[in-house]
Design a protein that fits this description.
Blueprint (H helix, E strand, L loop, with lengths): L5 E5 L5 H9 L4 E7 L4 H17 L4 E3 L4 H9 L2 E7 L11 H7 L2 E5 L22 H13 L2 E3 L5 H10 L5 E5 L13 H9 L3 E4 L14 H15 L4 E3 L9 H9 L31 H10 L4 H19 L3 H13 L1
Parallel strand pairs: 1-2, 2-4, 3-4, 4-5, 5-6, 7-8, 8-9
Helix pairs in contact: 6-7, 8-10, 10-11
Length: 339
């Protein structure tokens, strides 16, 4: 069976049109954001909505829970949907909800979304104090149940401490190197090197505020950057995490950036003149355009095996190591070592 095509992060305004575009583009699996600032009950309501979509479009999508569901998606010609939260608000202040959320299907959770949280410091704060006492406990619990620690919106110290404290490799699902384009959300080489050395995964973002040149960023500039980063981190530790927000109204940007923490407009990485969603690059406006990235990686000098790894093979292998309970993961590692 061919190597799967996997996207490490999307937050689209979901519809039958988008689900069909996923199939047109051959997307086998995608990590979707189901919560930003939602509390536990509100997150459950979002899961209920996804359950309705699974009922309505069973020939297009289904809920993914294990790495094996990626193969099922390939065999059945559907897209596996893996749930994630971009903030720990879904677990509120209750560590017991980490296991409950995993049982409901959550497979990724960010420790912060830009701001300071109960667990760690976001990338927009002036002072990054690292993981909190609760943060260390929650990371350990996430490790135990098989919920991936995602540090995409976290500060440098917090991210490095998460890498060090976590007993399992973590992920940065959607960002780019700060050395390529300076943005608060893009990551310095210190983080990228530590992530690669620890076995973690880095997903390259296509959100224009994260791109050198913004919406006008050339395809080859993006793909050359991926090739250089793969050389630094190791080819096994990089993938795609588009951060695609297709068909979302500008009001959703306000919810993403403001949530319930302020009454004022927070323009974040955008400008006051354009607070909404920026236009996507013309070479990637939706799920039918992943082939453009693959072609650009080949033009950047990658061979077929490396291109396949970046486009989904690495994410699948990461899923295999990340979604099961920690005891099962350790047993599998011991069995592999004795083989």
């Amino acid at each position: 069976m061919k190597t799967p095509l996997i996207d490490g992060l999307q937050y689209a305004n979901w519809s039958e049109k988008i689900f069909r575009q996923m199939r047109d583009g051959g997307l086998d699996a995608v990590h979707v954001t189901i919560a930003y600032h939602e509390n536990f009950r509100e997150t459950v309501l979002n899961i209920e909505q996804w359950n309705r979509w699974f009922e309505q479009f069973p020939d297009l999508i289904f809920q993914g829970r294990t790495a094996g569901d990626v193969r099922l998606a390939q065999e059945s010609g559907r897209t596996a949907i893996f749930f994630g939260s971009q903030n720990p608000s879904c677990m509120e202040d209750d560590i017991g909800l980490v296991e409950v959320l995993h049982t409901l299907g959550l497979r990724f959770m960010q420790l912060t979304y830009n701001n300071q949280s109960l667990l760690a410091t976001g990338c927009y704060e002036d002072d990054d104090t690292g993981l909190t006492r609760m943060g260390r406990e929650v990371v350990a619990e996430m490790n135990r149940v098989g919920l991936v620690v995602d540090m995409s919106h976290s500060g440098e110290r917090s991210t490095l401490e998460a890498i060090e404290h976590s007993s399992r490799p973590i992920a940065i699902t959607h960002a780019n190197p700060a050395s390529w384009h300076k943005a608060l959300r893009n990551k310095p080489d210190t983080v990228l090197k530590a992530l690669g050395e620890s076995g973690g995964m880095f997903g390259f973002s296509l959100y224009p505020h994260h791109l050198k040149g913004g919406s006008a960023c050339p395809l080859q500039s993006f793909c050359d950057m991926i090739a250089r980063t793969a050389e630094m981190m190791g080819i096994d530790h990089v993938g795609i995490g588009t951060d695609l927000c297709q068909d979302q109204p500008d009001s959703v940007v306000e919810w993403m950036r403001i949530g319930r923490w302020t009454k004022k407009i927070d323009y974040g990485e955008g400008s006051a003149a354009a607070p909404g969603f920026p236009q996507m690059p013309d070479w990637f406006s939706g799920n039918r355009h992943f082939s453009n990235i693959a072609a650009g990686l080949k033009a950047a000098g990658m061979d077929e095996d490396d291109v396949a790894a970046v486009m989904g093979g690495n994410w699948r292998r990461f899923f295999e190591k990340s979604f099961g309970a920690e005891a099962e993961w350790k047993m599998a590692g011991a069995a592999g070592a004795g083989a």
